[in-house]
Amino acid sequence: MSKKSILVVEDEIDILEILVYNLEAEGYRCYKALDGEGGLALARQKNPDLILLDLMLPGLSGTEICTELRRDSLTQDIPIIMVTAKAEESDAIVGLGLGADDYVTKPFRPKELMARVAAVLRRVGVRNNSGGGERLEANGVLIDTVRHEIQVDGQTIEFTATEFKIIQLLASQPGRVFSREQISAKAIGQPMLPMDRNVDVHVKTIRKKLGDRRSVIETVRGVGYRFAPRKGQG
Ligand code: CA
User: What is the CATH number of domain 5-128?
Assistant: First the structure.
């Protein structure tokens, strides 16, 4: 297996060096950027397997970079872990809504960070090995995107087309949080309006139909929803 590559975007040179030192010790190849523009350019150029993204950067902020990365088809699937000061944790949560996969707060223990990196890479590996996404299976829920069918513990359950799309979107990346705006845009096919409760209403119905497996759709307070990570992940 070839070396996984990680792009580290961090303006504090000491922290950058610590990150790179630890990542290289784990066998990753590292690309370094000291600011947001450099980070974006390297992300497009090198297509790394993962990006460690500092939130407080000169010029473009981490959340802006996150938005840019997710907007560009070249970079939209690269997993992102945000690195943030404890006091900026609320920004990190915003970042999760923008499509980041995880975040760690400074000061971090290198061991913990390495475990997070490995967990996110594993999660993505599962995502990419699902064979074109024809059948997704997690936590007792089997989603067959070809037959447009969902089975829960072996029992086929009827979902509307919109409900199906929402489940499919969430289950495409177990553990990743999708904001209500993202769910609305991607699964319902329309931008979310102010006071729009459409997504919540759909999720409520989906959970009712899932019965004993209702807990696979998790609410992430203030952000949105996610499909429960598979056991042993994330
Ligand atoms: Ca910084």
Answer: 3.40.50.2300
